[in-house]
Each structure stands twice: as C-alpha cells, then as structure tokens.
Specification:
heterodimer; A: 161 residues; mainly alpha; 3 domains; 0% strand; rod-shaped; B: 366 residues; alpha+beta; outer membrane lipoprotein receptor (LolB), chain A; Phosphorylase Kinase, domain 1; 2 domains; 11-stranded antiparallel β-sheet; 6-stranded antiparallel β-sheet; 21 strands; 24% helix
Amino acid sequence: MSVRCEEVRTRLTEYQLGLLEGPERARIEQHIQGCQRCGEELAALERLDQLVQPVERVEAPAELWTNVQARMKPRRRSVWAALRQWWGESPRMAIAAGTAVILAAIGIWLSVGGPLQGPDTTETLAAEYQQQQILAQWSQPLADDAALGMMFASLDGADAQ
Amino acid sequence: MTGRTWKIIVSAAIAVIVVLAAAVAWHISREPDPAAMALVREAAAALDSVAVRGEVVTRVRTPRGLVESRAIVHRGDGRVVIEYLSGPAEGIEVYRQQGVVWAKGPRGVHRRADVGERSMRRELLERNWRFRMAGERSMAGRAVRVVKGTGPGGGLTVAVDTETSFPLGMRRTDPGGKLISSTIWQSADFTVEPPPRRDPPAPEECGPVCPRREATTLAELRGKVDWALLRATWLPDGFNDERWFLHETHIGRVVELRYSDGLRALIIIQRPRVKRPAAQTAPDGQRRSEQRDGVEPPGSGMWRERMQDRRAERVDRRVMRGPMHRMRGVGGDAVRRAVDGTIAIVIGPLPAEKLERVANGLEPID
C-alpha cells in the first residue's frame, strides 16, 4: 500500500459521509478513481451504510402493552417506600396520626400507674424495706435503741411528714 | 559444725518459738470465755430493766453514709424515750414501750410500728457467738468492763457498767469489720426513775396508711395470703430460729421470714409479684380496699397486671442498686429474687455472695 492510499483510507469515512469539501474532497475522489483497492474499500463502506439504514416503521399491535403488563410480575413496594410516598403526599396526616399515637400511649401509661410516683416509688419501697430491716433488728437482744431510733425516725417514706 | 551453722539453727529455732507462741495466744484469745458470755447476758437483761438517763452519741452507717447524732436517752422498766438533739432525726422523739415504737416530731406522730418484745435465745447466742473479756476502762465517768465478740453476723463490742451491768457502750461491725453502728454514753444518771408510762398512739394517728405487723405462723399465713410463700433451702452457718410475721404496709401485705444467729437477724421479705389490693386505713379510720365487692377497678386486666409487674420490677431493681445496696446500718445488703410469682428481698448482715446463695435457694413451700 502506497503512503497516499494510507492517507486516503484514514479520511475515507469522512469522505463517504460527505464531510469533506473543496480540494481535499477532489484529491480523494481523484485517487479513488485511479485506485482499485481504495475504490473497493469505499464500496464496502457504502454497503455497510445501507445495512444500518432504518427499517420500515411498523405499527405495534394494540394489545402488545397489555400483554406485556400481564406477563410482568407485580413488583412489591417496601413499607418504607410506601410510607415515604404517603408522607410526601400528606405530611399533615402523618403528623396528626403520630401525635394521636403518642397521646394514646401517654394516656395508657398514666392510666396504668403513671410515672414512678405514688405508692410504689423507689423511695417508698426503700423506706419500707429499711423499716422491715430496722424492726427485725430491734427485737434482737442488745439492740442499739439509739441507733435504730435515729434510722427509724429519719426514714424517707410516704408517711413521713 | 561451724559457728555460722549454729547461728542459723538458733535463729530458726527462735523464729519457730515466736510463731508457736503467737498461734497459741491467738487460739486462746478465740476460746469462748464463759465469764464474758455471762456478762453479755447480764448486759442484755440490764438494757431493758435498769433505769438510767443521760446523753449518748450514736453513729450509724446509713444509705447516705456515716451519720452521727447526739441524743438524751431515758430508759428503764422496758420503756425507752430518745430525744434527738442533732443529726438526721434532730427534734424528733422516739419512744419504745410494750413492743411498739413510734416517732413524734413537731407536727405529731409520724411513724409507728410494732416491733414486739425483745427475746433472747440463749442456746443460739452461746452456739454462734464467741465473747472474751477485753479489759477495763472508764466510760461516762464510770468503770466498765469491755467484752468483745464475733458471730456469723459480724462483731459486737460491749462496755458493761461494773455496778449495774448496763451496757454504756455498744459497737457493731459487719463480717468484714466495717462499722455498722455505735452508741456511747457520755453521761449516765442511774438514780432516776424509769420514764413514765405512755399510751402508744393508735395506728390511725400516724397517717393515712399505717404499717401494722403481727407475729404469726406458717399455717395461719397460708389462710391470709394467696401467693406462694418461700423458704430458704440454704442458710449460712449459725442462722436458724425461723419466725414468720405479717405486715400491712404502704405497698400492701408483706410477709417477713426471719432467721437469727442469736444477736442479728437475717430477713426475707416476701410480697406478690403483682400488687394485690391492699387493705388500707383511711384518714377517717375506716378500712378500705382498692377492690370492693369483687368488682375490679377500671383499667384492670392482664395487660395492666403485666405493666404493673414490669414497673414494680423496675422500681425494685432501682431500690436494690441504690439505697438498699448501701444499707448496712441495721443489717446489711439486700438482694432480690422473683420465684413463682413472689418477690423476695433477702436482707442480712452477710457478705453479698452469701445473700445471693440464700436468695438462690429460695423455694415455694408445698
């Protein structure tokens, strides 16, 4: 292959697509007329071009999309995705529902006994157990009345004033 | 043999003699002294019978740490009046009479409880405790003989007045030697009459719900409570003398199972896991109940019981971790177990591992 043939073939695709103009196009055209191998190369490019030409447009059958949908497996949406969608559509409803749940929980909690107050608090139970402890020791021989009395009198409990 | 060899042999012999002498002295010092035991028994009797009035300083290990209080004590003929001058009970008077103790503050009686009469089990005391004489000294301006003892529940030192046998000083320690409480008389007047007899306050005087306590038997208890009663299948050496008590308290009915080593008590408090309707005394003196005529109060049901159950457990655990854990002043640490629907709190002057073992051995009584 001459040097000229090599140069022509690097520009052959552009020539075939009609991108070259003026003297460059005329020079390549002149070479192809005199060079059988470059002419065959151009002819091959033109055949390839014809192959990739769009086929005739065909109208799809009316029931095609329906059939495709029927064959598709239903896609499961995650709970989180559903919530996100619902939240995006109606955030006020979500806030209202959340508030209602919280209020209901507080109501149940209060009805059951409420916070750790009242007769079963830590302090009351501790005082009660300590009192049992003091009374148990107080009936033993040589019980230290002054020490036990101080504990007894200063117990924190529901009945302490 | 060389001179150096002789020196080594003589040195070794001296060391052996010193060790043997120390061992013999230690052994002798641990031998129970019948005279010391007799003095302790006399002191225990004098504590309730001798009339005396004076000022004492008492120190107690409490949940808040070691506290000190000064007080005027007047006692005799089984009655005691203690007027606290300082410390956490300042301004409060505590009375003990006929098995009842009550505390009276500026606003009247605020605490009352039945403790029962003191009782001494001589065989328990002699079996479990080892006392020995520890010298003579002066206390509150009087001559006293000091007796030291050790038992399963720790140590006890008593300073006994030579003339009256009244204990003018008492110091208790836990099994680890840590101070539990001490009371030392600063002055003592033995010429006084016993304190005057008073009428113990009625239970209703101490508030809307007044704790009550009664000594009972296992057979009686079975008819009074509807939850599983527990008994210890393992006890530390020295603790026996099983006794049962029933308490009406702020937290409902509570059963107390008590063991003693002769001087110190190990108690097992028992209550239902889910709070039962508690008989309560209203301010007007009428007995009331949360559940009347068999109708459950609003909100009752299984879920409510479960919630209460969990809540009670949470509170109990907080109590165990907090105040009771530090409560050595009158008995020792506490541990908790739930067995067959019954919550048991084991409290006693024992190391934690022994309390745990007692708690682990709790079983329902058939």
